[in-house]
Amino acid sequence: MTVMPADLSGIDVRAEIERLRKERNAVILAHYYQRPELQDLADFVGDSLELSRKAAETDADVIAFCGVKFMADTAKILSPNKIVVLPDINAGCSLEDSCPPEKFKAFREAHPDHIALTYINCSTEVKALSDIIVTSSSAETILQQIPADQKIIFGPDRHLGGYLSRKFNREMLLWPGVCIVHEAFSETELLKLKAQHPGAPIAAHPECPPHIVDHADYVGSTSGILQYAATIPQDTLIVATEPHIIHQMQLSIPNKTFIGAPGADGNCNCNICPYMALNTLEKLYVALRDLTPRVEIEEPLRLAAKKSLDRMLEMASGTIGKGDLGSR
Ligand code: 13P
Ligand code: SF4
């Protein structure tokens, strides 16, 4: 149930979140695509790999996950004895939606000699049907550990899969899913922006289609892009990923200018993730107060999904979660 902000008039939501965070022994985890006010009060802000690691190692009793459902599900899979709440339970993901478990199962059965290397942006059921999970910051390290003659299915993001396939000259069967947010960047508008800022490099998330990635000076995960922004000598960077990450860049690198890559209408606001945006300060307060909406997963399904996630955590143990995809 979603409580509207109007019901909360007279309540100091920030003060209440602080009180409840202590009272509940809660940790607040946030993804870089969350609204700035949620990033600012989180105990930890990170990419998908870093957030999974935090969820697995926390000693809090409650994890309040400011992100999307597959991220909160991952936290519950890795920390089953914690209460995991997601401020808005409808915060889904177009990649997860593109890959119904029964269709994925049939696809796997049609290719029995392939292993399934699967992007973390998928349902718990699809994780349970997969061999190894990857995030954008761990995909390269993990792919390099798979023998060259091993056939691979990669899903659900065909752009990340295609990018890896081109970079490593490795054939993979790609599931046809896309992120609606990264799909919406416009090559024409990006080139116009680049012409206005010829000295500014372009950093892109690998969920972007090839016509965007091909213009990028750096391709990597959200944390990788942040690290790149801090290390480049230029004072301006064009950022082709969800624009809320720019908040974190402005906090950590205040002397540089960050420009969101545009969509077809010439501005970057069409690239705000509509799912991530469902979480608000008010909904976080209600989630901590009522300990709902709560993520629950049946134990057999959780154990099946945990195997592929554990493989990711083992195989990515050498990565620091800082976007090891690196430059093209
Ligand atoms: P990373 O933060 O792991 O780069 O992934 C971004 C993402 O897919 C969130 O939707
Ligand atoms: Fe899913 Fe794309 Fe939103 Fe990430 S940005 S949660 S991949 S829809």
Give a structural overview.
It is a single chain. Helix 3 (48-57) runs parallel beside helix 4 and helix 4 (69-78) crosses helix 15 (299-315). Residues 320-328 have low confidence and may be disordered. This protein has 15 helices and twelve strands. A four-stranded parallel β-sheet has the order 2-1-3-4, sandwiched between helices. Strands 6-5-7-8 form a four-stranded parallel β-sheet. Strand 1, helix 2 and strand 2 (44-46) form a beta-alpha-beta unit. It starts with 12 loop residues before the first helix and ends in a 13-residue tail after the last helix. The longest helix is centred in the C-terminal third of the chain and has 17 residues, at 299-315. It has three domains: 13-92 and 276-297, NadA-like (Rossmann fold, 3-Layer(aba) Sandwich), CATH 3.40.50; 95-179 and 304-324, NadA-like (Rossmann fold), CATH 3.40.50; 182-260, NadA-like (Rossmann fold, 3-Layer(aba) Sandwich), CATH 3.40.50.10800. The protein is globular and about 55 Å long. By secondary structure, it is of the alpha/beta class. Helices cover 40% and strands 14% of the residues. The site of 1,3-dihydroxyacetonephosphate has 10 residues, from loops. The site of iron/sulfur cluster has 14 residues, from helix 5.
